Amino acid sequence: MNFLTCFFLFVSSSLALASKDEFAKFKVDHSKKYCCSEEEALRMEIFQTNLKKIEENNATPGVTWTMKINEFADLTEEEFKETMLGGYIKTPQSGNHPSGMKGVVADLPDSVDWREAGVVTDAKNQGSCGSCWAFATAENIESYAAINNVSLVELSTQEITTCTPNPLSCGGKGGCKGSIPQLAYNYVQLFGLASDDDYPYWSGLTGLTGKCKYDLERRTPVVGITGYNTLPANDMEATMQHLATMGPLAVAGDASPWQFYSSGVFSGCSYSSNIGLNHAIQMVGYGTDAEHGDFWLVRNSWGPSWGEHGYIRMQREAELTCGTDSTPMDGTACVDGPGTDTQNVCGMCGILYDMSYPLGAREWGLP
User: Fold this and answer.
1) Bridge partners (DSSP) listed for residue 52
2) CA-to-CA distance for 296 and 347, rounded, in angstroms?
3) Which residues pair with 253 in a beta bridge?
4) Is the dihedral of CA 42, 43, 48, 52 positive or negative?
5) Which 8-state DSSP code applies to residue 90?
6) % the chain with pLDDT above 90
7) Rounded CA gap, 285 and 288, in Å?
């Protein structure tokens, strides 16, 4: 055995030991336990593959964002999609109800961050339930209630998840199996919404939707709305105008490549590939990074340890850039409802296609 062979064997052995050490640390950091030695071996193999992917991304010159090991590092890409991205699919008509803002031109600030106004609650974690649609809706209602001088309070994502009816299977089967913000807004308009303290979230631990515990005698709504509205689809000017003058937006995006996002301005969705909108989030502003350029500021629902304290900055192009969602009817819309073969979606990861916000957010019981 020559020197080079020995050297490469030594390096390979050292890397294998290092990845095993990383896996051991990962298990401790994220309280991971597996059923048996076979399962642990499989998860370590997946972890090592993901670790290599993360290291390669972070070593690539010119990449404007970094990746890191997080709680999803023992999942394959398909497992990640099934676990975290099964809870939002748009309806074909989403984004086609004009808000009346299209074409409005105004001098806009260089940056907007609604966190600075004290109207955005801390980053939340949907856990193992596909309830991103409920989180995006509740977070947006929290913000608009605070903008309208209602004390900022965390609202019940559990109530929306368990109590919002979905008899026609719009956007999924309901609850942890997916739904749409429009139905959530409709529910809150009729019944109001309790606080998280009054109706705490537990579906993230169980993965189960559970049964609605709606009871006016035991549950006290704290916030109500009069309805909701949407922005014109793929209208960048209207989006910036709304963020600058009115408030945050519940939006949809293709979050498939976000699994290991750590920091920076994300530009990892390819406009030449399918952009399948599969995740609901809250857009709370926009700005410019001195090194990596313009971005949209988006709050995710995967906990504060993911990304930039629960947020992702997504590339904001100078001109509207679009791609195609070629799978809009993969379980979308309502059973036997209308649909199309493809949709034109714009903005990084299709972030500008489907945007909504509540109307008349107020303290419950007030006219």
Assistant:
1) none
2) 10
3) 279
4) positive
5) -
6) 73
7) 11
Between strands 311-315 and 261-266, the pairing is: parallel
Q: Which amino acid appears at position 87 of this protein?
A: G
- Residues recognised as catalytic: 132, 279, 300
Q: Name residues whose C-beta falls within 8 Å of residue 216's C-beta, 6 or more positions apart in sequence.
A: none
Q: How far apart are the first and last CA of the chain?
A: 85
Q: Residues 300, 311: contact at Cβ < 8 Å?
A: yes
Kindly list the structural domains of the chain, giving each domain's residue range(s) and its CATH number in brackets, ordered by start: 3-63 (no CATH), 81-363 (3.90.70.10)
- Residue % of the chain over a pLDDT of 70: 83
pLDDT digits (tens, 9 = 90+) for 76-133: 999 998 888 866 655 544 434 444 444 444 589 999 999 999 999 999 999 999 999 9
| pLDDT tens readout for residues 206-223 | 999 999 986 655 678 999
Q: How many alpha carbons fall within 13 Å on the CB side of residue 96?
A: 8
Buried b (16+ CB within 10 A) or exposed e, 270-280: ebeeebbbbbb
**Dist CA 54 CA 296 (whole Å):** 23
Residue pointed to by tokens 């020197």: 3
For β-strands 322-325 and 249-253, DSSP reports them as unpaired
DSSP-assigned letter for residue 125: B
**Distance between CA atoms of 340 and 327, rounded to whole angstroms?**
9
Expressed in percent and rounded to 5, the helix, strand and coil fractions of the chain are 30, 20, 50
CA atoms within 13 A on the CB side of 350: 31
- CB distance 114 to 127 below 8 Å: no
